[in-house]
């Protein structure tokens, strides 16, 4: 009974305890979310600008989005990365978090980092964020602004440090559509284009397609250009036409060392697409030549500063600054005077043409000019043409290696038939140099049949080896497109073999390649041309000996003293050595001819090429003569 009674006494107490526990649970319903979730959700919203999924107290997502847009508008395309560093909750109703905002600024260097506090609380059974403008990393009433301070583009200089490509004054001439009524813009464009001698309809269409506040450039003139002054005077009489005073990176003249130096201008859409981390629309960069190859060096590193700006007062607080790093100039091997001489002697040559001058002792390219007929194509460095009789020096080298000397006799006939094809000597070949003549005489007058008659002693593989020993086909490691020459090890026929001995058939070279051949003969070993002063040139393998080079120099001197380069006999300075050449091409009768001449004078090796000419002696020879005369100071 006691036990039973005792048990009855305990049951009401146990029931009260259970009721109490249930009542307590009912007073504390589950809270939706957590401080960590809210902080992470807000961090994502700060990155993306989309706040719809962020629970807020006394805040509307649209307001937060608007504040973010305004605060970051002057940052441009700068992305922001937000990280939750810590979350603390002192009780079950409130919490705080620390967020770190990292603004990924363009270029290299420190990024802008801002740490901001986030307050959170439980409202209506849910953890929510307390929105504040300061969460954007800047107080209310201020915006973040980034401004780049560009580095002046580096100069390209000559071997003595004299500026070649540098900032020069220009006029950008075009139509400013804000200065003309919309219905008058196209007629103004036509008038301006006609005054400049350009296509009026094409320019009018460009102006029509541009935005209502656009400046549409028609042409850029150097301020030293007389034609530019005339057009600038006419601009004042055309409504909407303007001439903007500016600077642009240019060489000394329009043609100077182009396209080697290259151009600078606004980046293309393809450049932006291929390297979006480096380029953005509107950026200025090297587009071709050395300007493109060394763009990173010549660009320098732009500086920037980030400020907290009050748009109303203009007052700003500096938050971060990177100083601009000025670029180092790019030093070339070009000689300013020699390059100018080369440009001048080619100025009146109508077909594509080139002149290349190399210093044999160093491989430095002192001049690399393309004539106006090249139309911007790099004939000097990258063209591929048969070198004609200038290549007979390689054929002669094979004969020298087979035991011949410059005095050895060869037979020069008027014609020679190989596999049904008749080879002839050049028109006007002297009768006195026919028959049994020394090799030096055959080379001096460029006898075709004498070398072809010796073709069994000059197999293609040995010819290709001799060409390589003179530097053709070598690896140059040029920073721009270049062609060092090519000679096949085999011929497809006896006729092709014979033609190859004359620098046609399966032989190709650029003017720079043939200048390098002349330099190799001058030095007694292959010379790798270089256009950058500190470039380490590779050393090609070669079996060329000084004795062989001396014999080749003897043959070249005979071309001057008794052959087709007699115009160089009395040039001032050291004795000139030379070899002329022609190479037939096309289907005309008689065929057209490429013309060549290579020459050596002291520590200078020169090659001249004209795409269509008469003879090497009559077309290229006078150009070599004029250049060497100017180079000697006369």
TrEMBL record:
EC number: 3.5.2.6
GO cellular component: plasma membrane
Enzyme class label: hydrolase
InterPro entries: Beta-lactam/transpept, Beta-lactam/transpept-like, Beta-lactam_class-D_AS, PBP_dimer, PBP_dimer_sf, PCN-bd_Tpept
Single Gene Ontology BP annotation: cell wall organization
Similarity field: Belongs to the transpeptidase family.
Protein name: Beta-lactamase
Native species: Ornithinimicrobium humiphilum
